[in-house]
Amino acid sequence: MTQLTQALEGKITPEMEQVAEREGVTPEQVRQGVAEGTIVIPCNHRRRGGIPAGMGRGLRTKVSASVGLYGAEAGIHVEVEKIRAAVAAGADAVMDLSVSGDIDAMRRRTLSVTPTPVGTLPLYQAIAEAAEKYASPVQMTVDDLFEVIERQAADGVDFLAMHCGTTMDIVQRAKSEGRIDPLVSYGGSHLIGWMLYNQRENPLYQHYDRVLEIARKYDVTVSLADGMRPGCVADSLDGAQVHELVILGELVRRAREAGVQIMVKGPGHVPLNHIEATVTLQKSLCRGAPYFVFGPVVTDIAAGYDHISAAIGGAMAAWAGAELICTVTAAEHMGLPDAAQVREGVIAARIGAHAADLARGLPGAADWDLRLSRARKELDWDAQLALAMDPERAGKLRRERSGESSSGCAMCGKYCAMKVVSQYLGTSEGSC
If DSSP codes are grouped into helix, strand and coil, which group holds residue 345? Predict the structure, then answer.
């Protein structure tokens, strides 16, 4: 049985209890959310050592980090360093998006290194193996693709991202509408290349029941990826994107009827004025399914600073109702990130996620800010650093700017305004 089928029968699973305890809600709230499909708990039957995490309505906004082998120089040890950096920075999930090298070994190492839910995109491995086996990825067979899907599920992967809703009709629509950036999804572009070369419908759409059969067998959560996600703000909410979203909504319904947990992965490049509409549209068309957003980045000109652009977009999207944010690093659009950039991207995404949780009035979110504010008022530097989103960086800046012995802030020193005002109001006995 899956988490969904048990929830529908009124059963509270151990995984639901663990999620409830971590989130500060009741197990019944989690069970009801899973039953409705507004919460997912990616937790493969085969996984060992994983810690269940809930993603969805009423829960803390989660952050996912991406790693993976890419190119001849890629090494598993380098990607493991990135995983550890991401998890140490507070990532709630990790996606292994390997496209080359020993993909099986990388995936199994990822599953062993992190206790967080682990996701993959099976098409990446299928086209890599087809290129090696047939000398071209467009020669991949449908059975090749589904063999990889099942192999990854059998290894214990918790959620699988797949472009099940990218159909021939949508491809033709995108062509006729004249997008600025026709395709930016790596998996989506390869899948569409296969479809056009072979003049065949998307096998993940045509054989969707087969996808659901594998997912139900292992209780893998399906993450419906959008092949038509906008790659520039000018393409946001165009006809192809919305058309695909309509189809994804129908696929959400079919997954739930099959007892399979499902969420939807979204854009992409989205200007601020489109974010609320994009999330509202997804929630309406996809029946409240958890929304997993890639950033989104809110401007195309932030090269080298896309983690900041994405933190802005992530905060706005989560405030509007998105529940899982995919980390974007400073290296986005430029090249592959190193471990430090992955860590920085996770922190930036977490700041955006927490800002949204604060705005949504999520229980416990305001308390965190309040505790830090009180520590700041009392000039309790140990507490301030401990409560910071990134205690390591905050502590480093404190030592560099003020020194270990100073109790005042670096801006005011002995003329600390916080101290003067507090003494005047009779609320502090501390001194600088």
Answer: helix
Q: What is the mean pLDDT of residues 83-92?
A: 98
CB atoms within 10 A of CB 176: 10
Q: Which CATH architecture has domain 42-53+60-358?
A: Alpha-Beta Barrel (3.20)
- Evaluate if residue 341 carries a pLDDT over 70: yes
Angle between helices 142-155 and 103-113 (to 10 degrees): 30
Question: What residue has token string 């206790």?
Answer: 115
pLDDT tier at 388 (50, 70, 90 boundaries)? very high
What does the block give as tokens for 90?
């507070």
> Rg (Cα) of the chain, in Å, rounded?
23
CA distance 307 to 330: 5
Q: Is the pLDDT of residue 416 over 60?
A: yes
Beta strand 55-56 with 39-40 is antiparallel
Q: Which pLDDT band, with edges at 50, 70 and 90, does 73 fall under?
A: confident
The residue extents of the domains of the chain are 42-53+60-358, 365-425
CA-based torsion, 254, 258, 263, 267: positive or negative: negative
- The Cα–Cα gap between 175 and 165 comes to 17
DSSP sequence for 4-44: HHHHHTT---HHHHHHHHHHTS-HHHHHHHHHHTSEE----
β partners of residue 293: 266, 325
Output the CA–CA distances (angstroms, integers) from residue 196 to 28, 138, 192, 221, 230, in the order listed.
47, 9, 6, 29, 20
Which among 28, 34, 47 has a CA at the least distance from the CA of 262? 34
Residue 192: both structure tokens together: 């569409």
What sections of 321-380 are H helices per DSSP? Answer: 339-359, 365-377
pTM listed for this prediction: 0.93
* Mean pLDDT across 318-343: 97
Q: Average pLDDT in the 71-86 region?
A: 94
* Res. 422 pLDDT band, cuts 50 70 90: low
